[in-house]
């Protein structure tokens, strides 16, 4: 009995290690399965490889961890999976100009190394998650030209003062709020881009 459970434990550990090795590949592969990809841009995303670092549109650091996802104007449609929030080292999330629908997952707020979140020109609905305010490293936040509703979370706005946020374009959505146009916000370095259509 003892030996059996020991062997089982070792097997389980070995499997866990194998799975862990390609955890990021599994996350991206799950995202691939959730998207429609009529142009086959994700053809190289083979989940049987040891990591996703050789896949097109994916960039890794020297530790084989994903730091960029470059899928702007790729003809993709479908949801942005909350699981993307588990790509711990991601710095660039470039999903602009597709047909991504559904909401912006609040789990993206776990991406505390993110420099650029470009989700503009999709058909995203729902609110801007306040969790984005956790991303002190964020420099570029582009959510313009979607169908987002609600108010801009104060947590996100405060990144302008306390974090690195220098460009935030949220215009051409259905947001509400009291923030004025960039020349009236009083934030000196920051460009907050929005328009009258956005702010009623
Ligand atoms: C993703 O992250 C969440 C929160 O940190 C964790 O609970 C979950 O197990 C992770 N999922 C995977 C597949 O790594
Ligand atoms: C997203 O679009 C697909 C395809 O049109 C549709 O089946 C799905 O219900 C949409 N999801 C949401 C959340 O609107
Ligand atoms: C803000 O940006 C600077 C310069 O690019 C960088 O050194 C710093 O680590 C960033 N802050 C955070 C919290 O990522
Ligand atoms: C901000 O978004 C609007 C709407 O999509 C776009 O027309 C405008 O060019 C963007 N501005 C900048 C500076 O990116």
UniProtKB/TrEMBL annotation:
Q: Which InterPro entries match?
A: Leu-rich_rpt, LRR_dom_sf, LRR_N_plant-typ
Q: Where is the signal peptide?
A: 1-21
Say yes or no: keyword Hydrolase present: no
Q: Indicate whether Signal appears among the record's keywords.
A: yes
Question: Which residue range or ranges hold the Leucine-rich repeat-containing N-terminal plant-type domain?
Answer: 22-61
Q: Which Gene3D superfamilies match?
A: Ribonuclease Inhibitor
- Spell out the PANTHER family in the cross-references: SOMATIC EMBRYOGENESIS RECEPTOR KINASE 1
Q: What is this protein called?
A: Leucine-rich repeat-containing N-terminal plant-type domain-containing protein
């Amino acid at each position: 009995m003892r030996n059996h459970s020991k062997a089982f434990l070792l097997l389980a550990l070995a499997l866990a290690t194998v799975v862990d090795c390609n955890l990021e590949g599994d996350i991206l592969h799950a995202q691939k399965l959730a998207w429609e990809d009529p142009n086959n841009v994700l053809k190289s995303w083979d989940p049987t490889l040891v990591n996703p670092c050789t896949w097109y549109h994916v960039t890794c650091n020297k530790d084989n961890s994903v730091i960029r996802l470059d899928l702007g104007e790729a003809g993709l449609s479908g949801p942005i999976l909350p699981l993307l929030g588990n790509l711990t080292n991601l710095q660039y999330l470039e999903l602009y100009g597709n047909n991504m629908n559904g909401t912006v997952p609040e789990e993206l707020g776990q991406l505390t190394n993110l420099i650029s979140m470009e989700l503009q020109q999709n058909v995203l609905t729902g609110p801007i998650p306040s969790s984005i305010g956790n991303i002190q490293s964020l420099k570029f936040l582009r959510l313009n030209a979607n169908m987002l509703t609600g108010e801009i979370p104060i947590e996100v706005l405060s990144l302008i003062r306390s974090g690195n946020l220098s460009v935030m374009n949220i215009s051409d959505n259905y947001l509400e709020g009291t923030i004025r146009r960039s020349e009236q916000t009083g934030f000196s370095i920051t460009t907050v881009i929005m328009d009258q259509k956005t702010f009623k």
